[in-house]
From TrEMBL:
<feature type="domain" description="Glyoxalase-like">
    <location>
        <begin position="1"/>
        <end position="47"/>
    </location>
</feature>
<protein>
    <recommendedName>
        <fullName>Glyoxalase-like domain-containing protein</fullName>
    </recommendedName>
</protein>
<dbReference type="InterPro" id="IPR029068">
    <property type="entry name" value="Glyas_Bleomycin-R_OHBP_Dase"/>
</dbReference>
<dbReference type="Pfam" id="PF18029">
    <property type="entry name" value="Glyoxalase_6"/>
</dbReference>
<dbReference type="InterPro" id="IPR041581">
    <property type="entry name" value="Glyoxalase_6"/>
</dbReference>
Length: 49
């Protein structure tokens, strides 16, 4: 399973998920979304609305 979370502000959402324990994935293939890993290592994306 892979989650895509739609957000209005990527920078603010990134700060929030990093503060909750996520880490940024090394591979960032686009500019309208960002890939992260939860603390257990599962990937998820933040996507611009």
């Amino acid at each position: 399973m892979h989650l895509d979370v739609v957000v209005d502000d990527l920078d603010a959402a990134e700060a929030s998920v990093l503060g909750l324990g996520a880490s940024r994935h090394d591979h960032q293939p686009g500019t309208t979304f960002r890939v992260f890993l939860d603390p257990a290592g599962h990937p998820f994306c933040l996507c611009l609305s």
